[in-house]
Amino acid sequence: MKTVTGIGEALWDCLPEGRKFGGAPTNFAYHCSQFGLDAWAVSAIGDDDLGEEILDICKGVNLQVICPKVPYETGTVQVTLDPNGIPQYNIKEGVAWDNIPYSEELAQLARRTDAVCFGSLAQRSLVSRNTIRCFIGNMPEKALKVFDINLRQNFYTKEVIEDSLNICNVLKINDEELVTISNLFGWQPKSDKDFETIWQTYDFKSCCRNILTKYNLSMLILTCGVNGSYVFTPDGEVSQMGTPEVEVADTVGAGDSFTAAFVSSILLGKKVNEAHKRAVEVSAFVCTQHGAMPKIPAELIASPPVPLEERGRKVES
């Protein structure tokens, strides 16, 4: 059985209507577990009620975790609404997931991990950044090291992004993040225009190919919301797929489910275009559900997945 690990933040989004558990690494690991993989979520929690609640949630969905208790409070994100109803986020610093300790238990997990997913947010602190890099350094050479960049507020630097690009072999990025790092690295002239205006004239395919070559990546996954998604590979081939039209409940965790479905499919021997199709189908389903960790229907776990328009019919055995 293939082993996958999501490593980084575990936190609570404190919304006006109540708390919701969050954290891309946990979402990723949970969805990988639904594909029958040996999935682990790695983070850190405080010795407090919020930390215990995280462990209870993971136990409830049968997700394996390494979340040591550290002398910091469990992470929270305060979400408030401005007068126009636009959400404002305050991701609290100096919390448990900023201080993920490296241990022999993590080293042992790293040595048998076939794919890891990590982002930029948990690298805002030196402790967790070093733990993530030690983990990746102990992984098998041919393992998938997926940098799901996940830029959040101002919690990233050019140095962190460049270092992460140098230790990953798969990059997942969305269209707005691509423009942001292109500006940061000087890959395109800076502009005061809004994103939509920039994107209309931006040669994103050339940019993706240049990143793929510059950092010797095996794959680059670009998601563009309702405008579809792309997977670039070194052989010059591009897998391109549209985004299905679905009735959206919320988009929380959809990106993490996309990454999980794609990585799981690759580990299970699927070709890039097959893995891409499954990722699109799974993330579309997650958008129709409330919350980041819904149970994926059997027809989407099936190989190949049952198309959206055929769901509800009996799956042939």
Structural account:
With 317 residues, this protein is an alpha/beta fold. It has one domain: Ribokinase (UDP-N-acetylmuramoyl-L-alanine:D-glutamate ligase, 3-Layer(aba) Sandwich). 37% of the residues lie in helices and 21% in strands. The chain contains 11 helices and 15 strands. It has a 9-stranded mixed beta sheet with strand order 6-4-1-10-11-12-13-14-15, sandwiched between helices. A 4-stranded mixed beta sheet has the order 3-2-8-9. The longest helix has 16 residues, at 272-287. It is globular and about 50 Å long. It starts with a strand and ends in a 16-residue tail after the last helix.
Task: Classify the beta-strand content into a percent band.
Answer: 15-25%
By CATH, the topology is UDP-N-acetylmuramoyl-L-alanine:D-glutamate ligase
CATH architecture: 3-Layer(aba) Sandwich
* Strand neighbour order, sheet with most strands: 6-4-1-10-11-12-13-14-15
Low-confidence stretches: 312-317
- Give me the strand/helix succession: EEEHEEHEEEEHEHEHEHHHEEEHHH
Shape: globular
In whole angstroms, the N-to-C terminal distance is 23 Å
CATH class: Alpha Beta
Number of separate helices: 11
Number of domains: 1
Q: Fraction of residues in helices? A: 25-40%
Structural class call reads alpha/beta
Oligomer: single chain
- What integer value in Å does the Rg equal? 19 Å
- Give the number of DSSP strands: 15
Mind telling me the CATH superfamily name?
Ribokinase
Give a quick account of the main beta sheet: strands, pairing sense, barrel closure. Answer: 9 strands, mixed
